[in-house]
Amino acid sequence: MLKHGSLAVAVVQRQVMVVQAARAHDQRERWVDVYTYTPFGERVFLASAVPQARISARDILTIFPDGEGVYEPTTGMLELPAQAFCEYMELSDRTQRRYEQLFSAWTPKVGLKAKARKLVPGW
Q: 76-112 pLDDT, tens per residue?
């Protein structure tokens, strides 16, 4: 599934991040050891506050093809090619919209329950 050093986009702590495989993983493994990167600018990613993580294999959204031209200017920094960055942005936007839909569906229910219990003043 993932070779050592392969790049992917995954959900880590409810955030979409670029991750790099810390070691080789096969398809049967349920957990993947990765290095995490957060966006810093146009196509540039920096090592996140928690640079290493173990994530569920289900949290991987896409795996970039090997040798796609990822540039590593210095340790802890990645620069993605334009196509890979566009794919990251699309997955990030899609995940954000899904979280917003879940929150908006949840908010009215919580508001009605609080009103019924008279926990929210002025309702």
A: 899 998 888 999 999 989 988 887 888 777 666 655 5
**What DSSP designation does 74 have?**
S
Q: How would you label 101-122 residue by residue, b for 16+ Cβ within 10 Å and e otherwise?
A: eeeeeeeeeeeeeeeeeeeeee
> Using CB atoms within 10 A of its CB, is residue 88 exposed (0-12), middle (13-18) or buried (19+)?
buried
DSSP result, 1-66: -B-TT-EEEEEETTEEEEEEESS-B-TT-SEEEEEEEEEEETTEEEEEEEEEEEEEGGGEEEEPPT
- 85 is written with which tokens? 């960055």
How far is the C-alpha of 1 from the C-alpha of 3, rounded, in Å? 7
In angstroms, the CA 38 to CA 44 distance is 9
Strand partners, 35: 20, 52
